[in-house]
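Deliverable D4.2, example record:
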Amino acid sequence: MRHFSIKILIFFIFSFIFSFPSNAQEIFNLNIAQAVELGTQNSIELKNLNLDYNIQFQKNREITSSIYPTIAATGGITYYTNVPQIQFPSSDQSIYEVLNKEGVRDQNGNVIDIGNSTFSVNNVSFIQPWNTQIGLSVNQLLFQADVLVGLQARKTVLQLSQDNINVAGYNLKEKIYKAYYAVLIIQKQLEVLISTKQRLTSLLNDMNQMYQTGFAEKLDVDKLQVSLNNTESGQNQLNNALKIGMASLKNTLGISQKDSLVLIQNLDVNALKVDLMSTNDFNYEKRSEIALLNTALELQKLDFKRYKLSYLPSVVAFYQFQRSGQRNNSFAEFTGKSWFWFNTGLVGLQVNVPIYSGNKRKSLMNQAKYAGEKVENNILQLKQFIDLEQEIAKTTLNNAIINLDVQDRNVKLADEVFTKTKIKYENGLGSSFEVIQADTELQRAQGSYFQALYEGMIAKTSFAKAFNKL
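Output generated by the structure prediction step:
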């Protein structure tokens, strides 16, 4: 019995532990393509735009339902606690007129007098207390202009929703590229700065030993310590920048801040040097923004057509059938049944012809026309902006590549100067000031290189977006 109780206790302990929600973190190892795919899957904006697409698809089905017949059945039963009545006049005047005309005399020998006729009103009802009706109606739209245009516009409206998804997806892709490379470059810069810190630490140890043996001054040690402190401060700043950049990238990818993110993309500097002449195959229509406006323009044309065709009549065919019954127990004395049934059928064609609406349709046509012209102007303006965007992107990328080459040569030269200066100092042919100054210039060159590298990656991303090559 005790053994059984222990088992139950263990069971409840485990149940209690695993009843709490799990806070397990996920680890994402992503290259740039995988980051774009993950961000696209998690984007709330894209999810909502896809829901808008689904909503529009259902609206299209709603429009399609207009061309199918509508069938409705009705039924009901009523009981009149007080049946409605009408006043039915009753008079024997016509009889008196005939008797007077024929000269008929009364018992006193006098000719019948019309004035002796009587007039009365009786309450009569043609409705029985119990009534029931069962009916069926069928309506079929044969022609209506706005429905016809709506059917034509279904595909275009759905395409507009898809174009909105494409534009948002392309903008998100650009955002992910820039955020990803910003973090990647900070990580590379941090690696170099850590290496610089190690170099300065080693140099400081060597200088301390030289100071202990009398071959260096305390001032030289202090200067190098200041340089090392500045390097550590720069490392702290980069660490903070990396945390912020990583948090921003996680937010862009739609993952939790508690998750771990590892960037595995190789930072290929040579990839910046793209063939700028490969842009000759650019087509405005390939830009998602242009496609969106073209679809919007097509919808405005359909809207204009809808108002233009609204002058045409609409035609509807209909059929109605109804079976009604009335109940009166008095019927059974003559027919043997207390219910009396009868059928009603109706078939017809209804034509509605618009004649005059106070120039409303003309105003709506003009509104659609001007809205279409506005979209055309927006397309022209967007093309001009794309031209400007491409010129800026090409120039910026060219300058970024040139600047990156310069900064790369500066880093190599500064590293060479530092190495030679350090050797001279170690051989007693140079001062510690020269070593510290050479190291400072090397760090400055490295910082300028990474800044140029970041600007180059951003310029490349903007260039790819401008020419629809992202």
